[in-house]
Design goal:
Blueprint: H1 3-16, H2 46-81, H3 85-99, H4 103-113, H5 119-146, H6 149-156, H7 161-197, H8 208-217, H9 223-249
């Protein structure tokens, strides 16, 4: 699968996220030419529901990944380039403590405590739950770059921290940051599935976790619901895998000549 096809499919899914499925007929209507997968329990075209849910799940993962990386890039820069050793050690202890409990467990506990999952609640929950993981990866990369001679030279020149971060550190860390973004996106989508399987999904939301929940409940009479949700997850992970493979095959820019 070429990168152009991957980008095209990703664009199609992101476009489908904006679609709001309408009621077109009776619940559980059989497949027709206009509705190849039939209708769901609400009388909506299930194919449109599936495409919209897949796109929205992808959007949710990308939103969380973007916010997570930006926030932790700033936090990691402060801790790594801070001259206060005790502060850095304290942050490391906090990260190890938070990561001792899997992100999936944290999320399910919080979601169940609040009686369900909506978009805003899920974004906030996943952001804080995945922050220790993102902080560990990004701070590790920044610690490595901090030892590079050109970064030490820039610090001796007393360039503004924002310029060093934006124009010198980020370009040389973009491969790690890109892979991390894909990992976080995949984790977020997987957690949505777990929320649906365990019955915490909000039935009014159009996303893959909800389809999994309804598919599990109607497995015998309407197996296409559950199977289509699995196909939606598979499509997203295949997309992420192809992007990850493209990033991994691209040349690294960890070179003083590229930033000075």
């Amino acid at each position: 699968m070429t990168l152009r096809i991957v980008i095209l499919l990703g664009g199609v899914l992101l476009t489908c996220a904006a679609i709001t499925p309408d009621i077109i007929g009776d619940p559980w209507a059989p497949p027709t030419l206009a509705s190849p997968l039939g209708t769901d329990e609400f009388g909506r075209n299930h194919l449109i529901v599936l495409l919209s849910a897949t796109g929205r799940s992808l959007v949710l993962g990308l939103i969380i990944a973007s916010a997570l990386i930006i926030a932790n890039l700033l936090i990691s820069y402060f801790f790594v380039f801070s001259r206060q050793r005790a502060l850095s050690e304290l942050s490391a202890i906090g990260v190890q403590t938070a990561e001792s409990v899997p992100a999936m467990i944290w999320t399910l506990v919080i979601v169940s405590a609040f009686g369900g999952a909506n978009w805003i609640g899920l974004i906030v929950t996943l952001f804080f739950v995945l922050t220790p993981f993102a902080f560990r990866v990004i701070s590790g990369e920044l610690s490595r770059l901090k030892q590079e001679p050109y970064i030490e030279s820039l610090q001796l020149l007393r360039l503004p921290a924002s310029r060093v971060l934006l124009f010198h550190i980020v370009p040389n860390a973009k491969q790690v940051l890109s892979v991390l973004a894909l990992q976080v996106t995949g984790i977020c989508i997987g957690i949505q599935g777990a929320i649906g399987v365990f019955g915490f999904a909000n039935r009014s939301e159009v996303e893959l976790g909800t389809i999994l929940l309804r598919g599990r409940e109607n497995m015998i009479e309407h197996p296409v619901i559950f199977i289509s949700a699995i196909v939606g997850f598979f499509a997203i992970y295949l997309l992420l895998y192809q992007v990850l493979k493209a990033i991994s095959s691209s040349p690294s820019e960890h070179s003083p000549a590229s930033v000075i």
